[in-house]
Amino acid sequence: MAERCLRKSSPRQGCDLVGAAFNIIDLQNGFVAPGFPGELPMARKIVPNVNCIKALPRAPSTP
């Protein structure tokens, strides 16, 4: 999975994982579930990418 995520990154963006941090803050039903008070429809579109990035630090090939 880590390799797939890295392949998707743009060459211009780079993907230097040394010293990088990734924080998932409050990505919950209040923002992604339809009809919830704080619903942000666009938030649902980023969930697959968040899950992909989240898996990188757990991948065996991560430095």
UniProtKB/TrEMBL annotation:
InterPro entries: Isochorismatase-like_sf. Gene3D superfamilies: Isochorismatase-like (3.40.50.850). This is Peroxyureidoacrylate/ureidoacrylate amidohydrolase RutB. It comes from Pandoraea cepalis.
